[in-house]
Write a structure and sequence with these properties.
The complex is a heterodimer of chains A (about 290) and B (about 290).
Chain A: H1 2-11, H2 18-46, H3 68-76, H4 79-110, H5 116-126, H6 135-145, H7 151-159, H8 162-173, H9 177-185, H10 190-198, H11 203-218, H12 222-227, H13 236-243, H14 251-271, H15 273-286
Helix pairs in contact in A: 2-14, 3-14, 4-7, 4-8, 4-11, 9-10, 11-15, 13-14
Chain B: H1 2-39, E1 42-43, E2 51-52, H2 56-62, H3 65-97, H4 104-116, H5 119-130, H6 136-143, H7 157-185, H8 189-197, H9 202-213, H10 215-230, H11 234-239, H12 251-261, H13 265-293
Helix pairs in contact in B: 1-13, 2-13, 3-7, 3-10, 4-7, 7-10, 10-13, 12-13
The chains are: A mainly alpha (about 290), B mainly alpha (about 290).
Amino acid sequence: MEKTVKLQAAGHGGGKNIWSSSLAFALMAIVSLFTLFPLFWLFSSSLKDISEIFVNPPIWVPSVLHWENFRELFVERKFGIITWNSFLLSTTSTLISLIFCSLAGFAFAKYKFKGKQFLFVLVLASLMIPHEATMVPLFSIYKNLHLIDNIWGVILPDLANAFGIFFMRQYCMSLPDEMMEAARIDGCSEFKTFRRIILPNLRSGFAGLGIILFVKQWNNFLWPSVILRSQENLTLSVALKALEDSNNTPYHLIMAGSVISVVPLLIIVLIFQKQLIAGMIDGAIKG
Amino acid sequence: MKAPKWNKQMLVAPYIYISPYFILFFIFSLYPILYSIYISLTDWNGSGEKVFIGFDNYMQLFSDNDFWLSLWNSALIFLMYVPLMLFVGLILASILNSNWMVGKGFFRMALFVPNFVSVVAVSFVFILLLNTQDGLINSVLRNIGLIDNPIPWLESPWWARLSVAMMVLYRWLGYNMLLLLTGLQNISKDLYEAAYVDGATKIKSFFYITIPLVKKMLLFCTVLSTIGTFSLFTEPYILTQGGPLNSTLTPVLMLYRESFQNFNFGYASSIAVCFFVLMMVISLVQMRIFDEKE
């Protein structure tokens, strides 16, 4: 009997050793401090006056909370419309990607068609083209298509999402074939089958992929910073960098702007954390 | 009567379903990458005439110290954070995998948060923390008497590389830990029990059971980190602008400079093509590892 108890303890990682568990807990706490402290500093600095940013001794929490940093951003720097742009861009891009990815993923999972093997390898191979390597030609193509300084210019290249096709294909493959056959016998057209029968069963896939795509687009920086020009077309990430002035960088405003960019995402991620984490792991391992 | 109609639909439907992807792929990926190869053989400032110059851009690139430096910097940054990240990540994953740990959900999220917070925002916070004069870290270190002179976190080549590496570590530790945790969850607990019966300590179990069994996952994380490190852009762009003395210049940052700051589109395209080849080689290695896994 005693032997069994010991074995159980070992299976639990030797929890009877109070010292090693405390050590493990302490390590975890230190690393969490390392990951969470910069966020605390971000929030604290966003409510400081510019004169309180670089001072020694450091001001941990400002005694007067300078909410006017936020007001200045919204009133004088167009952060209202910029936040709206980020939201619109991320939502539109995510929704359209989800439709395209689920259609293509469904086709690759459930249909037999000529050239399927080859086309799928092509999707696979397309993952190897880094977006950064296409920026120069894309920029000159955009000039002709009038997509410079246009948020559609950010959205369009990201809609062709090979990763998303893989992701949705996995989910579609787990659906039973009988579902489609039953719908066909009932006289549903192919698209109706997809819309009425398949789509509702892909909900968890949509949640996982959707949150990944949304986060990625919300934080997208390099390409938007290349093509977006006028203040009222910027996204939050680009606008933050644009606040930087060579002589006198308004770090208090940059921190306030960062809070505006971080908080919505933090809320969304806390709501969907299970889907996000599951999706990221699935995506990394299967893709 | 209806059967043939279905069949016809079934033949056409998949092509319609995959067409949006392929149309967008041809316009926004395949055509640009081929066009990129062509531009790399010309001298072009983005608006004037393209002058065909053969492989001159590549000759110039391969004798350009900055290009080799950008690869070398990436390799150094990689060495500065990846071993540490995988080692700490694995230890933390083991802790989260044990039954006795409390607050697992909180810690998992706390470690993962930096991964989805805007890189731009995080980079600016790091500037506040690492500023030489009155950045928080130097202030604290000086106040508690650990250092007399401020550390030039962003102003000397080696410290700047380390700072960039630490920021990348900050962003990716939690993500890699989660991947390793999935690897650990596939290991049977019986193995640890057997080792315990044989008198192995926990540290011994870690080195003789845990590490060998998550080797594939460690390798996988290493490949992902290689891709990530060689495509670094935002972190060095905001923290150091690639400086000081180009010590944090990365291939993508160099590509950005040559194209959208200096308007040497031809030369920039030769960087883009080399970068594409590099990424392709790494991806092929990754696929091989992945195939062996199955």
